[in-house]
Amino acid sequence: MCFLLPARLRAPTGLAVAAVTAAAAVALAWQVAVDGMIRHNLGGWDAPLGIGLYADGLSCVFLVLTGVVGLLVSVYARSFFSLPEEQEGATKLFWPLWLILWGALNGMFLSADLFNLYVTIEVVGLAAVALTVLSGRPPALVAGLRYLLAAIAGSMAYLMGVALIYGSVSALDLQVVAQSIEGGSSLRVAFGLMIAGLLVKTAVFPLHFWLPSAHSSAQAPVSAILSALVVKASFYLILRLWVDVFDGSVTVAAGQALGALGAAAVLWGSYQALRQRRLKLMVAHSTVGQIGYMFLLFPLITLAHQGGADAPWLIHAWTGGIYQALAHGLAKAAMFLAVGVFVLAVGSDDREATVDLVGRLPMTTFALALAGVSLIGLPPSGGFVAKWMLLKATFTSGQWWWAPVILIGSFLTAGYVFMVLRQAFAPTKTPIQLKPVPRAMEVTALLLGAAAILIGFRAEEVLFLLDVEAPFQEAVEAEEGGGL
Amino acid sequence: MRPVEIGLDGLLCLLLLVLAWKALRAPHLYQSAIYFIALGLVMALAWVRLAAPDVALAEAAIGTGLLGVLLIDSLRVFARDSKTDPDAESEEPPPGEINVYPAGSARPSGRTLPMILVTASCGLLAILLVEAIIELPDGGGLTAAAQENLERSGVDHPVTAVLLNYRGYDTWLEVGVLLLAMLGIFCAGGRVGFAETRQSNPPGHLLSWLIRALAPLMILAAAYLLWLGKLAPGGAFQSGVILGSAGILLRLAGFQVISRLPPLAVKLGLLLGFGVFLIFGGAALLTGRAFLEYPEARAGELILLVETAAAVSIGFTIFAFFAYLNSRDQPEAQENHAREEGGNQKP
After folding, report:
1. Which residues numbered 108-137 in B keep a CB inside 8 Å of some CB on A?
2. What interface predicted TM-score (ipTM) does this complex get?
3. Nearest-Cα residue of chain A relative to residue B129
4. Are A292 and A204 in contact, with CB atoms under 8 Å apart?
5. DSSP labels for A357-397?
6. pLDDT for B43-76, tens place per residue?
7. Domain spans of chain B?
8. Which chain A residue lies closest to B293 (C-alpha atoms)?
9. Looking at the predicted structure, is the pLDDT value of residue A369 above 70?
10. Contact between chains at A45 and B170 (C-beta distance less than 8 A)
């Protein structure tokens, strides 16, 4: 399982470990889908004393996303880091760092213990910062330092919250805490601190200040990992706390507040992306916007939950938000990898330099276009499914005010995607010399782009997996029962 | 509580606040670092007063000793960089006083709007925290449960039982964090590996003799703390820090510590703690127990083994932090290093 943490091994071994880890994630998901939730008590100690690992539908969905993206990015990275241009700095540390990061991500998705979750987010954060500064270039160092400070501030806030919870309920296991939680101001403060700390790490507007520079100054495979997976990890944790631990104590106002931050992020991030001239910065700002969509999930599910079982939109909102995380993970990885190919071939990441990209790098252009389609949310992509479900939930729940945000965000996204594509399809007479790019890099970008579209067709499987031990089981069953 | 104790605690609280404020507001970074070290020492005393000697030991060793060395050494590197930088302003701060604020600008005034906002939000947070902490029930926690299972854990000190047995998984990951921190430093420095050269100005005879005599004693103390962890405050982290400090002292006296060992041995030393946990956890899985589960009969010995490995790795890592920083500012060391690296490519 996730215990396959690495020694200091180079590319071929790293790749092999990546394949095994991804396969293990899929196998675990399969097992969970067939047999239901799995729990493993580490060290043989039961819940309040020891630490548990716990796999349900939600964790498996994120594990598989990480596995798929991780494997493809690893293939890409193998070619990328063997290029002579990318040898500077400490790049030979890519494999140990990336595999530790991956292991920590898996550990986080499986952990059932508040303090253990803190340790895993700390490992994820440190490894992510180290990967950001891998090249040792000055802009990357500056961005990395800013990222480090933000990440540490975030985890300190989370840790303070954990300490308060341990003080008040004498337990750290998620399920035990969830059962013994009663209101009270210490709990409210703890909850606020934990969520605020994680919001910094997820880079939700207005706490996104560190993200664009960090994600755009890292090397291409690292940017893909950071944008597609690392920010999802803290999103997963917020979701987990919100629905599994604090589900009795969250208020509608808190949900609306998170939704408002998300909405602001959608508008601001997408608008900023539209204004960027450098491709990598554009893609990084687009991450800020797309993360915003995921947070629209919170007002919807909170209202539904407070309203009891009588909330048919609940399942739409829940799956829509998670689908957005999946679709964005795949599409954004594809986009960063494709831009990486482009930068290597052309030697610039100016938006205007993409002239006639389609004639010169057809496969990369196609990957970029597929990822863009999913980000905009055009049918039949994964992004479409996500945004459609969220839209449906906003209308059926009567919270129509989120709908224009979703639509305007899509238009802005369409704007920046088409600005790149328009240049890419513009023919040019002057022949431009291209550096050759390894085939594997183009192919992996394309595969990820294709996956971002294809998960739009395979919604049933994802939904089925997500259903295992879903937090709203009772609500959904009650609804089904009521219908009969 | 006796009046003396109340007075002592009050003094500690006051000192903590004053030192923290001073560390934030000292005009020069060097002074800030010194205040910060003092803050760490007072904090360690506060932990003792809170009846948490394990935390106090860790705070004194890591928060004060190690961090102090690293801070001051980094400041020395900054000072040297700004002196050798030809573009630097001619207005050099006097030696020993390092001014990190951009040349020409005084320390930013404390009356700006962001400063007020930050202070206000910190104050608000403090009020909320105090309110939350007052509300906490007394005597909570899992202390009772930890004591109850102590017999089955193989050690007699509850803190060690929590760290190495009940929650060994967390400790394993923490050892990983240290390893990761070192890799991160490599990345930020833009190169891999260490270069230890003989210092151009070795310390006097007396000092180097003293350090020579102290180093074995420190290693002995580290081993004692490790052993003691079984029944009293002590254990892998504290012991590892002392081990690392012995290395740092030797290095300061101009000895080559890491370069004497073959690179493979250094790597093994760094990885040992993490690796032993992993091997042992995997073995437990293979024999049908849970990951990191100790067989009850042999738990004591196994814990000692794992702790020893962890302590060695922690010592190596801590020394590595220092050696890396220390070798950064020696141009000839970097050249040596470049040559070395060419020859020592991993197969």
Report:
1. 128-129, 131-133, 135-137
2. 0.80
3. A189
4. yes
5. HHHH-HHHHHHHHHHHHHHHT-TTSHHHHHHHHHHHHHHHT
6. 999 999 988 888 888 888 888 888 888 888 888 8
7. 1-99, 157-342
8. A43
9. yes
10. no
